[in-house]
Amino acid sequence: MRLTTAQTKAAALIEALPWLTRFHGATVVIKYGGNAMTDEALKEGFAEDVVFLHHAGLRPVVVHGGGPQISRALELHGIESTFTAGLRVTTPEAMQVVRMVLVGQVNRDIVGLVNRHGPFAVGMSGEDAHLFTAVRKHAVVDGEPVDIGQVGEIIKVDAGAVKALIDDGRIPVVSSVARGDDGEIYNVNADTAAAALAVALQAQKLIVLTDVEGLYANWPDDTDVIDELTADELETLMPTLSSGMVPKMEACLTAVQGGVPQAHVLDGRVPHSLLLELFTNEGIGTMVMP
After folding, report:
1. β pairing state of 171-175 and 59-64
2. 246: which residues sit within 8 A by CB, 6+ positions away?
3. pTM over 0.90, yes/no
4. 107-111 own/partner pairs: CB under 8 Å, 24+ apart
5. Once rounded to an integer, what is the mean pLDDT over residues 85-90?
6. Dihedral angle of Cα 57, 28, 180, 257, to the nearest 10 degrees
7. What angle do helix axes 92-101 and 67-76 make, rounded to 10 degrees?
8. Is it true that the peptide bond before 220 is cis, omega within 30 degrees of 0?
9. Within a 10 A sphere around the Cβ of 142, how many other Cβ atoms?
10. How far is CA 212 from CA 26, 223, 268, in A?
């Protein structure tokens, strides 16, 4: 019995070998969100996966948002959450809470979980060292731009500080708050921020964790997950996607069009989904190729 168990483990390790060889030294940007971020066991599993990647010779970078945590904190502060065209309207009062939650709470939690395994994670905000510079983004309602407050669109990425941390053997954990040249602070979509950072770092992969199995071929009629598609095929599909999937798939598209060889959407509800996608022959999510 012991031998069988041990042999199964050996088989799993050997299956990972070609992938370990291929991705050694590769920079991988991981967008962390959804259930993987709120369920305790999944949170710990995610931290283990990231440390595993680090020890396996990859260079992981984590980018996170914190939608549910922000909504909860705004409620506690008696600030109403309103959404226009799927974007959170961010007043100056709301922005203070957003920044506090993303930088002071969610970021610290992730850094803490990773650092149970060693002195690896360093938390950063998109404001640090001008990492993300953004301009005010307007929502479009009936063809007209609508001001939704301090919501930003990234126009420039200065990844120097992130590169320095990676070169020092650290794991950067980046929250999706950006600065404006006007001194304003902006809340930016974490999927978009992860894609922009992946392009700036010339990463080998962008991985977006989500709460679905991947991109479905004919949702809602069936739940067949498309395991692989090209950027052109994805562009054709874009108008048919559900609103929740749009920012995720747009991030993948931006990344591969910006020179990242592979972008993935994975089900973060599956324990160790990162390792399953990276180190097994089947993989589990949807992969976008240029």
Report:
1. parallel
2. 86, 238
3. yes
4. 107/64, 107/173, 107/175, 109/43, 110/32, 110/47, 110/62, 110/64, 110/173, 111/173
5. 84
6. 140
7. 120
8. yes
9. 6
10. 26, 10, 8
**Res 222: pLDDT:** 72
Distance CA 279, CA 141 (A): 43
Alpha helix segments (H runs only) across the chain: 2-23, 40-55, 67-76, 92-101, 107-114, 160-167, 190-200, 231-237, 245-257, 273-279
* pLDDT confidence band for 98 (50 / 70 / 90): very high
Q: Please return the burial class of 122, using the count of CB atoms within 10 Å of its CB with bins 0-12, 13-18 and 19+.
A: buried
- The stretch 241-251 carries a mean pLDDT of 89
Tokens in use for 42? 């999944």
d(CA 208, CA 197): 13
Q: Rounded to an integer, what distance in angstroms lies between the CA atom of residue 161 and that of residue 122? A: 11
The per-residue b/e assignment along 180-217, b for 16 or more CB within 10 angstroms, e otherwise, is beeeebbbbbbbbbbbbbbbbbebbbbbbbbebbbbbe
Per-residue pLDDT at 151: 94
pLDDT computed for residue 73 by the predictor: 95
Q: Which two tokens stand for residue 39?
A: 């369920």
Q: Is 12 left (phi over 0), alpha (psi -120 to 50) or beta?
A: alpha
Name the DSSP class of 176. Answer: S
pLDDT over threshold 80, residue 42: yes
Closest CA to 166 of 48, 24, 60, 23: 60
CA angle, 156 then 179 then 100, to 5°: 135
CA 234/CA 76 separation, integer angstroms? 40
Amino acid (one-letter) located at 246 = V
